[in-house]
Every structure is written in structure tokens, then in C-alpha cells.
Here is the input.
Amino acid sequence: MLKQDVNELLTRTGPGTDMGDLFRRYWIPALLAEELPEDGCPPVRVKLLSERMVAIRDSEGRYGLIDEFCAHRGASLWFGSNEVGGLRCAYHGWKYDVTGACLDVPSEPENSNFFRKVKLTAYPLVKIGDVLWTYMGDPAYKPPLPEFEWCMVPPDQTYTSKRWQESNWLQALEGGIDSSHVSWLHSAGLKNDPLFKGSKGNEYNLNDMRPFFEVVDADGGLFVGVRRNAEEGRYYWRITPWVMPAFTLVPPRGDHPVHGHFWVPIDDENCWVFTFDYLPARALTAAELQAMKDGHGVHNEYVPGTYRPLANKDNDYLMDRAAQKRGETFSGVKGIAIQDASLQESMGPIVDRSKERLVSADSGIIKARRKLLTSAVALRENGTVPPGVDPAHHRVRSASIVLPKERSFLEAAHDAVSVIPGVPQTSV
Amino acid sequence: MAATAVEARFRIDAKPQTPRNTSVVALDEGAMAVVRELAGQEWNAARFLGCADGADGPDGAAGAGDYADLQLCTVDGEPVRLSEELAEADFVMMIATEGRGAAAAATIGDACTLRGIMTAGLIVGTNGESGAALTALRPNARVLLVTGDEQDATELLAGVGA
Here is the structure.
């Protein structure tokens, strides 16, 4: 369990908070590229780390994230018109470019330089893969661009979605680090979901409901190895990397695409879950891609026109008790993504960790919290760059592998958990 | 709706009451230094022990149920048998910095398995010796944490309410 002050430090990510300062040292996903589909398209409202902004793609194809509210009298620039070279406020015509610099204040004399004194807060916005990434920290500390494999492979090898989750980011991340829930909450998905079923690894999963855990430090975060019995003298290992602050990869199953998540705080009670599937060495098939778009695997269906899941807290996640009784789902909620979201949201917007009763199987979560805490404090007190900023830390993979019992999983799987471009994932 | 901020305030305000009876056992000299440090902190119901001098494996004396027993000692040097220690324990954490305590780890692991007591292993150190410690502990602990930071021991014990 955590004391309240530690819980506050880990969960609050607004401006001026310790965890907020930590997040502001990283490039983080801001939007899907599909949300700004063409040059000069309408602006999109974006809230990240409790800051409200609009995302722009200007007439020349330049991207930017700027303060949502006009410097004049605070009207939302979302109503603005995306003209040549910038966004013009709908109220009194003040115009801004993607760097937040004001280009025009129409009410001033024609030769006035007043506009040069006006600048909105702005953050860079860069397209890598299917995602627009932003860096919201001090420009002096801007790191190199991220190099997660899922973003670096050719477009036909990757698919990304996002969903709004109505909970704090940390309890969502903890669900990604904790794999012990898979054998329970997602047990039916292992048998039925088209993006999960049919692998030899699933048999090991379902035949051994009491796995053993190993948590090991990594340069960018942690590796969590979970072992189950395989054939005589061998273990089936599932290895999950966590890269700080909020990225995990799920160990693959069979030849299915590899999936993972990046959780991004919207504010202290909401987060975006960027969810992806990718393959290092082949294109996604049409069937795989369609399954993802249909909400299978770790993706979900949506309220039309939004990124809000169709099954959400307002409709009790479309609970189906009959399906639960028939064993088609464990919790009565359909779909792996919403099974996670429902339980994580049910904990409350920010779960009160002083009431927890952790067990040793939660070691990965305990260690992750500690790394986040120590990194945030080290950043505050010494300016220490946190793990996971260096793009070298992004070049990791998850793996599932069968090993002789006496082998150390990390040594034996060293190549399997490293990115080797064009080499398929290590999977069972 | 249960998940809103307003509704979250109505959760029953009851903190966990019954602490875990936790036994923390050092398997080697380096680990004993960690255990002494832990013993100096405030806990609900944790006991801190090491293997008695020369007792790096089962001493052949049978405990109840015909499994081997082990001589342990408290940080103050008081002797205590593993079988007695485990009578009330519901969680055992073994700490190692090297591989010498493999036999003791096996005895503790077997005894806990027979009693249904959860085991965890903490390997402190990131040098070559920690690899031997990992090999020794892996068959005998359901959860292993390999770390270069001794403070993780405190965090793990605090996390489970020891």
C-alpha cells in the first residue's frame, strides 16, 4: 500500500507537479495521425497533462500544438479558421502559426508591430508512424525523437488505435505491468479472440494458473518475466518490457501480431490509451487488420464519431451476465480492452492505494512505482534525466519463449527482447 | 455510477487490518547486512532472521511431516528453528547476494510449499554473484526481484503490509 502523499506524487501530472515534470521530459503520443488528415484541416482540441491545447496542421503541412485559448480574451481557437500559414481566431481574427507566434491582430494599425509581442504556449508535434508525438517540456532538454519499433516499421506492418479511459494513468499502466490477471480476466479471450487464440503458449497459460514471477531492472524501466510449466525440464516464459514512463509490450502468442500500449495522462482522472499491433517482419494480413478495426484483440468498438468506447461506465460496459455464466467471458464484459478498462475505472478516478492489500505477485507494480518515484525525485533535486528518455531504451521487444529450467530468462532471451530490424518476434 | 469521483468518495473507509506474518530470511552474509537494516525499521508483524553459523543447509533433524528442518537465528543471535518460525508465517521473503545459500533456500522453499506459504526472493546486487543467487533461489521462490537497490526490500515489505 502507498501513503497518500506518495500516491499524490505518482498520480498528479499537471503543470508544476513532480510526475508532470517527469512526463514533460519525454516525447509522448498526442494524437493519431488520422485526426489531422490533410493540410489545412480543422484544428482538434487536445488536453494532455492537464493542459488544454489545439492541434493544427497548417496549409504547408506543418504540425503544432498551441494553447487552446486566444491571447486576446480567451476564446477557444477550436472555432478558428485554418488559413494559409496559420489559425485565425473566430472571435476577433487574431492569427497564430504552429509555433504559437501571433501573425496578425486586425484591430491594430496596419504597420503595428504589436502582434510580435504576442505568443501562445506551443509544443512541437511530429508524425512518427501512425502517431503524432509531442514534447511538452523545456526546449533546452528536448530529447531525440522516440524509436519504438511499432512506429518505425513500414505502414503495412502496424496499426494503432486510441481510446479514452476514465481513470488516472497509473492504475491503467499497472494493469499493463501485471500479467497475473490475464489467466483470469482474459481467460476466455485466449480461447476465442481471433488475435489471441490458437497458440501453443495459450495451452501453457491455461494449464498453469499459478505462474512464477521475476522482475529485473532494465535501462529504460523493467523486464517482468512470468514462467509457467512447459514440457518436462522446461519453462514457458512470457517477458514484458516496461519503458518509462508508460509503455509496455505484451508478449506475443503464436504468429499473431505483437501488441502493446502507451498510456498518456489527459488530466489526473482521465488518460488516453494508445494501443497498437505490429509485426517486425511481415505485413498485417487483411483479416488481422479488419479484426483490429472491428475491436478485437486489444482494440475496441467506439461510440460513433468519438474515441470513447462503446461499452463504457454509462452503460455498465454492456454487462452480459448470461455470457459470464456460460463462460464466454470471466467478468461479463466483452473484449480484452474493455475488460481492463472496466475494472481499472471501477477503482475510482484515482484509486486510493492506502487501502490496498498487495501480494508478492505485485512485485512488478511495487518496483515500477519505486522507479517512477525515485526518478521524479532525482529529476526535481538533481536534474537527473530519467530512464526511457534515451531512444536506445525504446529498442526492446516482448517475447514468449520456452527455456530449459536452469536458464536465466534474461540472459537466454537477450536477443529475443532486443530489436533486430526485420527479424520476426520470438513467440510460442 | 461507481466510477465517478463523487461516488469514489463513498467507498468504505477501512484500511487493511490483519497484517501479514512475514518472515524475512537472509541466506548469506551480505544479505544479513540488508536484513539487519530492515530489522531496524518499523513493521506491523515482520520477523528478521538469518541462517545460523554453519547451517547453510538442512541439519537432518526432521520437522513435522518428515521434511528437513533448518537452524535459523534472529538478528540478536537467538536460535529459532525453521519449523517453529513457519508455524505462524504466511509470507516468507528470502534475501541473497550470492549463491552460497542454495541448500538453505531449497529447505525453506520446500517447507513453505508443504505449508502453502507464499515465498519471494530478493537478489540484491548486479554482479556475477547475483547470477548464482538467482539460480539458487529460482526453484524456491514464487516471485523473484533482482535489484541493485537495497531499498527495494523495504518497498516490497511495505507494499505487502509486513
Remarks:
- Chain A has twelve helices and 19 strands.
- The first helix of chain A runs from residue 4 to 11.
